[in-house]
Write a structure and sequence with these properties.
By secondary structure, this protein is α+β, with helices and mostly antiparallel strands. The protein is built from seven helices and 14 strands. Helix content is 28%, strand content 27%. The strands form three sheets. A six-stranded antiparallel beta sheet has the order 3-6-7-8-9-12, with helices on one face. A six-stranded antiparallel beta sheet has the order 4-5-14-13-10-11. It starts with a helix and ends with a strand.
Length: 359
Amino acid sequence: MTGGTDAFDAQANALMLAITGVLLAIAGYVWWSRRAMRRGRLLADPPRRRRPPAGSRRTWSSGTDRGTGIPRRWRRARRDSPTMPGDLVKPLLLTRQPVAEQEPPLPSWVIGRCTTQSSYFHGRCGGEGARRLLVRGAALRGREHAQSGRHGQDAIGAVWNESRGVLYLAVADGVGSLVDSDRAAHAAVRQALSLCRDLPVRADFATHVGEMFREIGRALRASPDTAGGATTLVVAEVRPSPGGAALHVTGVGDSEAWLLADGGWMPLHHERDDARGNATRSLPGQVPLRRWQEEVPAGAVLLLASDGFAGAVAQRSPLGAELAARWRVPPAPTEFLVHVDFHDGYRADDRGVLAVWIV
């Protein structure tokens, strides 16, 4: 009985070894065949079209370049394409229930700076018979200042004057070669917003803005905290109306104001001169103001920014074209931060940015 069992076990083991050998041979044959077909291009099937990632601004050319066998690269999509680019970031959803994103009211007074860390804010204002204004603001400390341990020198701020039904914005960029410039930029924005907030109901901003800048200059020169610094400053008044908004922009220096409308950028306050390098007009100082005033339609976007961001914005620049496509609708706050923190390989300055969507 024992001899019969041993013979049966031996036959079963031999059968299992045979089956294993056959399977290994088949697997080896399949692997070798696929490798040979890839190398020798034995398959005549047409190349499969590879779809680009969702939200990509580029399109994929299927197939390979003739003569080289190298897959074709991504090519830039046409800028006049009506397709909206997808978001660069997505919220982390931990629920299957639909989440309604609601824009909070803009604080009546808010200032952001990047002295030792970055800051941002967002919110809505206006409405009730006029267009709503959606505000996004970010002050990002530049990589150059962060890595060297120096203070960031940009400041941004916004104030909603309820009695006048007007939004005021300010962006300042301290002059980097002077020691107190970070405090000067913050003080200039703070005082500009304070003066705008206290304007009487019937006061004309265009009439008062000249004296406002002179008063800011005198205060910077008189304070021991800011006397050793200097700063650029651009201030805007946004008065929403049923059809859009009335804008008034005034500034000194190379902090800039731009308008995005009908898919293109238009400079409103633009003093940057590449031939002069980093030299710029600044406060404190008796300098003539440059002003721009106009009615703009609903759907336009007003941008105020220091030169660390505005220097990359132009009608045909890569950043300008990208933002023109992405800012057709107000981005989520985190998406806006990604836009401000763009990387182009050589800009490492602080970035103070305020954007207002007239919706």
